[in-house]
Amino acid sequence: MAASVAREVQGIELALTSVNGGTFYNLGEILSVTPPTRTMGTIDVTNHNTTDYFREFLPGMIDPGTITFTANYVSSSSWASDLITSVMADRAKINWKTTLSTGEAATSSQNVWYGNGYITNYQLLTANDQAVQYSVSIKLTAKPTDSADTT
Question: What total of structural domains would you count in the chain?
Answer without folding.
Answer: 1
